[in-house]
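hey so i finally got around to running the thing on that chain from the lab meeting. sorry it took forever, my laptop kept dying and i had to restart like 3 times. anyway pasting the input first so we r on the same page abt which one it is
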Amino acid sequence: MQFTSTQHTNTSDAGRAAAGPRPSGKRTPRWRVVDIVTASVLGVAAGVIFWAWGLAWGPLSSALAFTPGLGGLLAGGWLFAGVLGGLVIRKPGAAIYTELVAAAVSALIGTVWGFETLIWGLIQGAGAELVFALFFYRSFRIWVAVLAGAGAGVAVGLLDTTFTSYAALDVGAKLTYFLSAVVSGAVLAGILPWLAVRGLAATGALSRFASGNQARTVSRRTN
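ok and heres what got predicted. didnt touch it at all, straight out
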């Protein structure tokens, strides 16, 4: 009986090993290779969108010129990468890394702002990163995503009204720009990335991440 029990245990262990590691509820802050690759891919894809958004910025900002500072509504188009990376990877540094990669890619393709974009990418990513850190990288609900997008909006609002042509605006226009950037960040960089992650998780594309596992758990409970 002792031999049979041992043999059964060894067989079970071998079966579990062949099936691969089981998903663990305990999160580790250490990045895996798949985390780096995925965050990089997200950053590159977002960088191309950043570049395209830069091309559209001129005509769109002209259309909003009837109210000085309202151009801040366009800021969210450059803020979503950090929130998206944070929601998918769910580890310290993900928001900063993804936003910075996106900024670098857009600069390499060619933008009117050149490599100064890297400074903006770093600070914008830090704005989103701070929010995820405040929740200890444990909560990724939609309202946390909105706050992270708004945090990135605060960062770009402060940068633009201090170091760009927006610094020449009067106080009222600066406040309009700042508030517009925060709202844009909350919507374009908060809600939209959260919906995108939900959609990707539903397809199984995020099966190797906690974000994908959580979506499947929620789906089972609602079915």
